[in-house]
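FAQ

Q: What does a record look like?
A: Structure on top, sequence underneath. For example:
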């Protein structure tokens, strides 16, 4: 394999035929190990360019070892994070190939160390700092990182994540941003304002216990996880309502949800200080203002004033 990788790296391009040879070598024994992953990431540094199959292969093989082959499947460990961050290198120097590999893993994982998500967000910020715009690929990466299982706010947008999105908006105000950024920004910030973070993902130990007790079908854990992951915050809320059988628990969560929809004065002051600083509002901020108008209940005075902007 070393000789094969050396020959490929000298071309600085990984073609389809190269991927076929790599696939036979790596999957020949039906087991992917970390030594092979290390060699592949080294090749990714020497030959980041390649046919579409190269990016697909690197994402697939990395997801196999860090997501699918785990026990329980889907739960990445802090040790995994240490290894991967060492392979990725500094956020501002990480290649698109590696970033997309990380995104692929996060989309399939049930829970990941927060450090990996923070790293992913940092790579996007580095790119926006470099060119002053948010493109369509970066919006998709942001969506993956912000709503990844195990992120700072889990299925909700946390304060730190909202701050980062506002920073990105400031950095790209004059840039030729992709239209999807406007909608994502408005929805994510309004998600943060409304969300109560009352759900925490199952720990590895808890998940193993659930797997051992799957004979008890009173709670459909698999269905719950699927709905939660696929529907963002609203999916999480509906999953809880469908799968929890205790009436008092449901009533308590409904009360929490109703309270969460009220934007507090502190949240209002924080947001009012972050947008329209120069007296003007960019497209993303105007889209957020439209969302604010749609929130139920009375807004605090500072946000009411912003929502009333023509």
């Amino acid at each position: 394999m070393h000789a094969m990788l050396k020959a490929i790296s000298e071309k600085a391009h990984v073609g389809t035929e190269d991927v076929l040879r790599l696939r036979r070598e790596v999957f020949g024994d039906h087991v992917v190990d970390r030594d092979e992953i290390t060699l592949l990431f080294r090749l990714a540094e020497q030959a980041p360019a390649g046919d579409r199959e190269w990016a697909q292969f690197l994402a697939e093989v990395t997801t196999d070892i860090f997501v699918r082959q785990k026990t329980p499947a889907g739960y990445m460990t802090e040790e995994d994070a240490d290894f991967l961050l060492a392979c990725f290198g500094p956020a501002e120097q990480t290649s698109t190939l590696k970033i997309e590999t990380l995104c692929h893993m996060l989309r399939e994982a049930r829970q990941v160390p927060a450090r990996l998500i923070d790293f992913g967000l940092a790579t996007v910020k580095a790119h926006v700092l470099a060119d002053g715009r948010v493109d369509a690929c970066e919006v998709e990466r942001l969506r993956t990182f912000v709503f990844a299982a195990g992120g700072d706010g889990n299925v909700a947008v946390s304060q730190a994540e909202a701050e980062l999105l506002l920073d990105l908006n400031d950095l790209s105000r004059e840039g030729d941003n992709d239209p999807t950024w406007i909608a994502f920004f408005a929805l994510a910030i309004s998600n943060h304002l409304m969300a109560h973070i009352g759900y925490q993902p199952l720990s590895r130990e808890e998940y193993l216990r659930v797997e051992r007790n799957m004979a008890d079908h009173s709670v459909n854990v698999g269905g719950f996880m699927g709905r939660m992951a696929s529907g963002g915050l609203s999916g999480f809320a509906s999953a809880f309502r469908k799968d929890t059988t205790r009436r008092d628990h449901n009533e308590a969560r409904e009360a929490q949800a109703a309270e969460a929809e009220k934007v507090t004065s502190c949240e209002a002051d924080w947001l009012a200080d972050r947008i329209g600083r120069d007296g003007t509002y960019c497209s993303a901020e105007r889209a957020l203002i439209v969302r604010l108008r749609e929130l139920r209940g009375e807004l605090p005075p500072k946000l009411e004033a912003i929502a009333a902007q023509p």
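Q: Is there anything notable about this one?
A: Residues 63 and 69 are 8 Å apart (CA to CA).
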